[in-house]
Amino acid sequence: MSAARVGVVTFPGTLDDQDAAKAVHLVGAQAVPLWHADHDLKGVDAVFLPGGFSYGDYLRCGAISRFAPLMDELIPAARAGLPVLGTCNGFQILCEAHLLPGALTRNASLHYVCRDQPLRVERNTTAWTSSFGEGQEIVLPIKHGEGRYVASADTIAELEAAGRVVVRYVGNPNGSTNDIAGITNEAGNVVGLMPHPEHAVEELVGAPSTDGRLFFSSILKKLVNA
Amino acid sequence: MARVIVDVMLKPEILDPQGQAIARALPRLGFGGVSEVRQGKRFEIELDGPADETALAEVRKMAETLLANTVIEDYSVRVEG
């Protein structure tokens, strides 16, 4: 069969699309560039929503991107089971699009945080985390000013009870409720997290680990076995 | 022509670190007697026509759809007169 095709979306102001495409390539999948203004998912098998400052973060992070033409295609496709991973600004967009519950707002410290962040993988049964061991501790870069995960008390209780917290900070960098770094939807095909797996795939560039690769190998494994 | 104001505020239960930073700065500047500050956004919407009930319903829909994220924010709509 031909290589699994993972779409990488570029909005105006996206920064991490090239790293994401590289990471997709490194695990043996084909990266397919997707443009925010197109009504076209190009028949991809999965979608990566990278980080950056789409539409300048105007109004709220992800608030404008959520209405991009591409999102008109992506939102129903994700609801129908298409695997989607959003990191950083991508996570913010998924929350604004209501594909994931809650919201990401200003870090409690008000400081932009840029560091190598220890994390614990709490759930390894999503489309994007199956290559991890349960409870595996990893290190990924974080770089955000608005990464504090908040949601209503009911939503937090529901996420915790259903095991939908995918990644948790070990040492909370931004004041996120319950140290939540990443979550999934009910079906486990849509995952959002603030840390950056796509920046932790090659030691050559000074990444703190290559733990990020396992997000990409997870999706490849799922697509090849599908 | 009418102007409609939409105020958007973080819900009371959501921590507002920007408001807190302002509250901490005020005493340093000699302003006393402030127990709390919360920061929000104000949108001024200029309508082509009058601010009748139909137009206001449309503005409320704008607020729900785009201006506010109702997961973490409340909004209020009023006509500036």
TrEMBL record, chain A:
Pathway per the UniProt entry: Purine metabolism; IMP biosynthesis via de novo pathway; 5-amino-1-(5-phospho-D-ribosyl)imidazole from N(2)-formyl-N(1)-(5-phospho-D-ribosyl)glycinamide: step 1/2
EC number(s) on file: 6.3.5.3, 3.5.1.2
Main location: cytoplasm
Sample GO molecular function, one term: phosphoribosylformylglycinamidine synthase activity
Signal peptide coordinates: none
Subcellular location: Cytoplasm
Pfam families per the UniProt record, alphabetical: GATase_5
Catalytic function, reaction form: L-glutamine + H2O = L-glutamate + NH4(+); N(2)-formyl-N(1)-(5-phospho-beta-D-ribosyl)glycinamide + L-glutamine + ATP + H2O = 2-formamido-N(1)-(5-O-phospho-beta-D-ribosyl)acetamidine + L-glutamate + ADP + phosphate + H(+)
Keyword Cytoplasm (UniProt): yes
Function field: Part of the phosphoribosylformylglycinamidine synthase complex involved in the purines biosynthetic pathway. Catalyzes the ATP-dependent conversion of formylglycinamide ribonucleotide (FGAR) and glutamine to yield formylglycinamidine ribonucleotide (FGAM) and glutamate. The FGAM synthase complex is composed of three subunits. PurQ produces an ammonia molecule by converting glutamine to glutamate. PurL transfers the ammonia molecule to FGAR to form FGAM in an ATP-dependent manner.
Name the record gives this protein: Phosphoribosylformylglycinamidine synthase subunit PurQ
Species: Nonomuraea roseoviolacea subsp. carminata
